[in-house]
Specification:
By secondary structure, this protein is mostly beta strands. It has 3 domains: 115 residues, Immunoglobulin-like; 90 residues, Immunoglobulin-like, CATH 2.60.40.10; 88 residues, Immunoglobulins (Immunoglobulin-like, Sandwich), CATH 2.60.40. It is built from 2 helices and 28 strands. The strands form 7 sheets. A 6-stranded mixed beta sheet has the order 1-9-8-3-4-5, with no helix packed on it. Strand 4 and strand 5 form a beta hairpin. The radius of gyration is 31 Å and the shape is flat. 21% of the residues are buried. The N terminus is likely disordered.
């Protein structure tokens, strides 16, 4: 207790210490606010000895438990199970953030708490410097959604689940894809299940399913809240269309396209002509375009034949296209002049 015998400055220090102890927060903790389904960016600058970068270990804790751990030079960070896919380093230097910063996405009510950034140097004594930042995250109250959906990536044909757990068991959960109610998308609705917990489950994800999915929750009082996430469906590169015949104009430039779809993006595309590998680099006047199409500078009869293309991405290929018969078409010519 502060008495008159104590110096005023000492009284102020005791009061500040008592307030900090009562709140259990570090004096330098910065408060952040986020809503359920939103995101929170937490800044953390790195202070290297003498300004020279050396090997370091970046660790983020929440309420004393490690949620993110990364060693410089390592390829993949270790993320705690409940945080998988929701905590990532922020690497865009244009934002003016430190290299230890993270982004917490798809915020949940249980994410509220005290966060600490810690940077240590394993090969240096002492291993720690003045690195470290404290944040206290407040998740805005009045939320109807306990667990919002988060971004999901699956392979074509796999099961995909987007969570949306309402706070009230009596709440009504509706799902939308790109703003359209799921009930108005019959092909998608046929493959979808709606468990009692409000989630959306696609039994077999298809290549046409990617997009933004939004859940809208309405409680018995009529209050509403929504949250959204993106579904990404990856698949082998595949041909989606191939004409049976293609006519190219003699003496003119022309192109022969390979109509494909790929996610992840295309990495290679192979052409065959009459059953043999067709390499434009070995054929004068024929080139590859950026999208893999064949470009002919000046079409002639040597370009006739049956062509097929095979697209590839990081997952492989679904196979070659059906053969496309290329024919060279000359302009009409006058065979005989009429007699006067």
């Amino acid at each position: 207790m502060c008495t008159r015998a104590w110096a005023p400055a000492l009284c102020a220090l005791v009061a500040a210490a008592a307030a900090a102890a009562a709140s259990l927060l570090p004096l330098d903790a910065e408060r952040l606010h986020a809503s359920v389904g939103g995101f929170a960016v937490m800044n953390c600058h790195l202070d290297f000895p003498f300004g020279n970068e050396i090997p370091y270990h970046l660790q983020w804790d929440k309420d004393g438990d490690t949620i993110f751990s990364w060693y410089s030079g390592a390829g993949t960070a270790r993320v705690a199970d409940r945080w998988g896919g929701r905590v990532r380093r922020v690497l865009d230097g244009r934002l003016g953030l430190g290299r230890g910063s993270i982004n917490v996405s798809a915020v949940r009510e249980t994410d509220a708490g005290l966060y600490r950034c810690r940077v240590t140097f394993p090969n240096r004594t002492p291993p720690a410097r003045n690195n470290g930042t404290f944040y206290y995250l407040d998740v805005d109250g009045g939320n109807l959604i306990v667990t919002p959906p988060m971004n999901v990536t699956v392979l074509e044909g796999e099961r995909a689940e987007l969570e949306c757990l309402p706070k009230s068991p009596e709440a009504v959960v509706e799902w939308f894809r790109e703003g359209t109610p799921l009930g108005e998308l019959p092909e998608l609705a046929l493959r979808a299940d709606r468990p009692a917990n409000g989630s959306l489950v696609l039994r077999r994800a298809a290549s046409g399913d990617p997009g933004e999915y939004e859940c809208r929750v309405r409680d018995p009082t009529g209050a509403t809240q929504s949250a959204s996430a993106f579904l990404d469906v990856q698949y082998k590169a595949k041909v989606v269309y191939a004409p049976k015949e293609r006519y190219l104009p003699y003496g003119k430039p022309a192109s022969l396209d390979c109509h494909f779809s790929a996610n992840p993006p295309l990495t290679n595309l192979r052409w065959e002509k009459d059953g043999f590998l067709f390499d434009p680099y070995n054929v004068p006047g024929v080139f590859y375009s950026r999208n893999g199409s064949l470009l002919f500078n000046q079409v002639d009869e040597s370009h006739e034949g049956e062509y097929s293309c095979t697209p590839y991405n990081a997952l492989g290929s679904e196979g070659a296209s059906p053969g496309v018969r290329v024919r060279v078409q000359r302009p009409p010519a006058l065979g005989a002049r009429p007699q006067p």
